[in-house]
Amino acid sequence: MKIIVLKFGGTSVGTTDRIKKVAKIIAKYKKKYNVIVLSSAMSGVTNNLINLSKKISKNFSDSEYDVLVSSGEQMSCALISGELINKGFNARSWMSWQIPINTEGKYKFSRINKINKNQIVNYLKKGGIPIITGFQGINNKNRITTIGRGGTDASAIMFAKFFNAEKCIIYTDVDGVYSTDPNKLKTAKKIKVISYEEMLEMASLGAKVMQPHSIQDARLNRVDIEVRSSFTDNEGTLITKRKNIINNKIITGISNTMNDAKVTLLGVRDKPGIAASIFKPLSENFINVDMVVQNISANGKETDLTFTIKSDDLSKTKRIILQNKKINFRDLIFDKNVSKVSIIGVGMVTTPGVTYRMFQSLARQKINIQVISTSEIKISVLIDKKNVRKAISSLHKEFQLNK
Ligand code: ADP
Ligand code: ASP
Ligand code: MG
Q: Quick one: which of 49, 252, 292, 319 has the fewest CB in 10 Å?
């Protein structure tokens, strides 16, 4: 029998009633497939665990953080298995260390590099349904690791890869990937098929529906993903390679972030090497600098430099810049009330005028663009957070995404 991997997100296992529904979905697939299940923690549980760590310390140990926050998945897996056993199925929960699922990299941000198949294969042969904790693994020191928020998506994709599954279905609380967050814009339209490249950009630029790393893993390993709802039977979205898609849209989707901060250094000496002196200590401290803009110096001596980072990194960034003896500047300004809005689409590669249409559409709404960055298939602008909804709605209309 062929293997199918099913992943259930936090809302899908958010209550015992939801878990009973999930068990019904699993039972349906069991008629045709060997089923491997990956589950997230019940919604809210991981956040509560993180808050507990913050109450102990702002600098809570990273390795203990992983032990703590990975515990939510243990609960949901036991509840799903318990319900399946009640229904007469042969099911059991598996913690990642019991398999094991091996990871590499730092605590909090590890990546799965190997899954030991032996026990699961034997269990499947006996007709069992393994219910496996997502979001986690163990490292070469035999310690528990986690793989980044929303990481169960990546766990499911890696299981699909290692077990050569016929399908990987991501069950969530929306019935697919939409042109933009359907909970924020009513006219958002479901996308039937989307390429890994576009999905990766949409996810990295703020579309929470899929974790960005999981899409990288899927693309690398050519795992097709179906995103669908555990609440309805509606057809979902297929995430697949570009070749499989015939698409005549210029723009496929719009994403936005809500957790960016803007940093401006006024009156920086304009000489070679200054930007490197500013960014080197930031990169050494794992601070990810995103958009960067430098004004052309009016007098040839001084310039202003603006860049964006994640809001969580703001106080660290401030400290590093103020301690940096290699740079001189007149003033340092921070702004947390910014948001990055991006339009994404492979169609823009071959269509001229997309940038102009984006800027004109925002100008009509009197929305000021603070910083711009582009890549082959996306254009991002930094704007005032209060204008995000207006911006998305006008861009959605401009590029006819509701059609
Ligand atoms: P899960 O807990 O199942 O992993 P998430 O909360 O991580 O679910 O992701 C689902 C949410 O992603 C939706 O409720 C929706 O608000 C949000 N979302 C953001 N952008 C999009 C988009 N383009 N399409 C669909 N959902 C999106
Ligand atoms: N429970 C984890 C989180 O909330 C992992 C996941 O949901 O995929 O981030
Ligand atoms: Mg998620």
A: 319
* Ligand 2 contact via 72 beta carbon (within 6 Å): yes
Pairing of strands 129-133, 111-115: unpaired
Q: How far apart are CA 222 and CA 125, in angstroms?
A: 25
Task: CATH number of the domain at 48, please.
Answer: 3.40.1160.10
pLDDT band at 243 (very low <50, low <70, confident <90, very high): confident
Quick one: which atom of ligand 2 is closest to the CA of 41? 1
* Confidence at 359, pLDDT banded by 50, 70, 90: very high
Residue pair 373/290 in contact by the 8 Å Cβ criterion? yes
CA of 283 to the centre of ligand 2 (A): 27
DSSP letter (8 states) at residue 295: P
Ligand sitting nearest the alpha carbon of 148: 2
Range of the domain at 101: 3-173
The number of folded domains in the chain is 1
- The full length of the chain comes to 403
What does the alpha-carbon distance between residue 63 and residue 312 come to, in Å, rounded to a whole number? 19
pLDDT of residue 17: 98
Tell me which residues have their CB closer than 6 angstroms to ligand 1: 9-12, 40, 150, 172-174, 177-178, 180-183, 207-209, 253
pLDDT digit string, tens, across residues 85-132: 999 999 999 999 999 999 999 999 999 999 999 999 999 999 999 999
Which pLDDT band holds residue 301 (cuts at 50, 70, 90)? confident
Helix axes 196-204, 212-221, angle to 10 degrees: 160
Nearest-angstrom CA–CA distance, 202 and 377: 10
Query: 386 to each of 153, 160, 187, 399, how far by Cα in Å?
Result: 31, 41, 20, 22
Nearest-ligand number for the alpha carbon of 174:
1
Distance CA 19, CA 85 (A): 13
How is residue 271 written in tokens? Answer: 């000489």
The answer to whether residue 21 scores a pLDDT higher than 90 is: yes
Q: Is residue 79 assigned to a domain? A: yes
pLDDT (average), residues 277-293: 93
350: CB partners within 8 A, 6+ apart: none
**208 CA from centroid of ligand 1 (Å):** 5
**Distance (Å, whole) CA 334 – CA 44:** 31
